[in-house]
Every structure is written in structure tokens, then in C-alpha cells.
Amino acid sequence: MERINVKVNGKEIPLTEFPAEFIANSICGMLRSLKDVDEIKDVEIRLKL
Q: Computed from CA positions of residues 30, 31, 35, 37, in that sequence, does the dihedral angle turn out positive or negative?
């Protein structure tokens, strides 16, 4: 099962295990510090600049 998918300008960016884990763990760590966030099962983040 893939843990993280990254697309930039609609293009899928392939990630090896280390950057995928680094990104996923960083995002989950930030989310856990937010009020009312208990167990994290699924995260969806979309960013438009």
C-alpha cells in the first residue's frame, strides 16, 4: 500500500521510501499537535499557489 502520493502541476512525483516516510511522518507530527486531532487514519492536503 502506498502511503503518500505527491503531484506537482498534475505530474506524479515518484518517491523512494526515505522521502516518502519523511514527508508522511512530518505531516502527521504537525497534525497531532493540533487541538481535537486524536487518531490519524487518513489525511488529504491540497495546496494551490
A: negative
Instruction: Please compute, for residue 12, the number of CA atoms within 13 A of its CA located in the half-sphere on the CB side.
Output: 5
Q: How far is CA 29 from the centre of its chain?
A: 10
* Predicted confidence (pLDDT) per residue in 13-29, tens digit: 999 999 999 999 999 99
Nearest alpha carbon to residue 41 among 49, 23, 32: 32
Which grid coordinates are listed for 46? 491540497
Per-chain mean pLDDT for the chain: 91
Cα–Cα dist 10/1, whole Å: 21
Count how many Cα atoms sit within 13 Å of the Cα of residue 45 in the half-sphere of its side chain.
13
